[in-house]
Amino acid sequence: MADVVEALRRSFGVGSVVTDPDITSRYLTDWTGRFKGEALCVIRPVNSWQVQRAVEIANASHTPLITQGGNTGLVGGGTPVRGGIVLSTQFLKGIDIDVNSRVAKLGAGVTLSELNTKAKEVGLRFAVDITSRESATVGGMVATNAGGIHLIRYGGTRQQLLGIETVLGNGQLIARMEGLHKDNSGYDWSSILCGSEGTLGVITAVAVKLISVPLHRSVALIAVDTLSGAIRIMRAARREFANLDAVEFMSRNGLELVQRLRTEKWPLGELPPYALLIELEGDDIEVEDVAVFLESHEDVLDAALASDARADGLWFWREQHTVAINHFGVPHKLDVSIPIGGIDSFVRYVSELLELEYPNVRAVIFGHLGDGNVHVNLLNVEESNEELDHEIFATVASFGGSISAEHGIGRAKVDDLTLTRSPQDIESMRTLKKALDPALILNPGVLFN
Ligand code: 2HG
Ligand code: ZN
Question: Tens of pLDDT along 298-355?
Fold first, then answer.
């Protein structure tokens, strides 16, 4: 093992191979604090040649290699296994924007905020937006196919991808960074690597589409009694407004935690059982039309409207959920997809299950209503209750859903993959894995067990 660190030091220089526990500790635990790992060292390559060298050394010594971006993943996918090397992409920088094609070519370690700051200078931005935008890297977003809050309008990360540069597990460097909008010349490596969670290759750079920054946005925060009511409002809003780009929901438990942590006053009197947030973006938003829509809809108990910069004040209630939940415990995060018509029954089923069988567990349920992504966060899950996660995933499967909507499988959900993917399906994924990473060095224990 000392040989591996030595070999890396010879290739990278002593300072680039970090073993000092004061520095490595932040790479060993995930953002939630639930997943903890150990590693031989952390390396921080500055170019794809160094990445290739690291993959070679890992192959020669059969050492696990775990790629990590901003370490904002929520399923343990970037947490190392004992004896492994953490490869941090944080110094793989570089932003090159082509305004004619509306394409950005980016080092994998560029954060979403860095990309948007640069793109804004030319009136553009990345279509996918996520709350962890300050730390999340584009490489990590591609590796997990991040979905985020604008998926209903623009699609997820996969839909934005035009190219990729990657070092596969077998050491081959694949560079498809032309950034062409049309390219049907064979297998699309961007799509294959997108969502592969570090198991097929180390993503070193990506080419993505950009969209215009609209002149205006308008946000409504709406109090509702039931999730069925929220879904009826959403259906009507989708008919009414072509430029709807977010439909999010929250429930009282989560709003309560945000209120407790931030001591902010909820803008609509008493906390309602559920809240809906809708956002419209465009160059000519008629705020009055939104107000009239909300007044006329019988499921709206109360609503607050805000435009442009002031809209952040309403997003606050949704965006503070993840931080507030983590402040009050170490959550089990079951990010699931449910066909939208089944969300109300699913949430009721989970609430009743907890009430009857796990009275100490507290569920905070919120998410992206527009695309059926329900974030079930469980607090106070004792080790003796860990089967609860599996019980909920089995329910998700029985609703025709997916056990991961947007966070990935990581280490957290490996045992449950068979619930929604068939043996043939998983076997074919393994075949692909073995072809591209024959020594199985990349992120062992993630996605497959
Ligand atoms: C979000 O939608 C993220 O804010 C995090 O996907 C969700 O904390 C979560 O469970
Ligand atoms: Zn989400």
Answer: 999 999 999 999 999 999 999 999 999 999 999 999 999 999 999 999 999 999 999 9
| Residue whose CB lies within 8 A of the most ligand 1 atoms, among 135, 375, 376, 392, for a mutation test | 375
- How do residues 237-290 score in pLDDT, each as one tens digit? 999 999 999 999 999 999 999 999 998 899 999 999 999 999 999 998 888 999
The first and second tokens of residue 52, run together, are: 């290739």
- The pTM score is 0.97
- Alpha-carbon distance of 143 to 377, in angstroms, equals 23
Instruction: From the CA of 322, give the closest atom in ligand 1.
Output: 8
DSSP 281: E
Q: Integer distance in angstroms from the first to the last C-alpha of the chain?
A: 24
Burial class of residue 248, CB neighbours in 10 A (0-12, 13-18, 19+): buried
Of 3.30.70.2740, 1.10.3300.10, 3.40.50.720, 3.40.50.2300, which CATH number belongs to 329-413?
3.30.70.2740
CA distances from 145 to 35, 157, 223 (A): 21, 5, 31
Radius of gyration of the chain (CA): 22
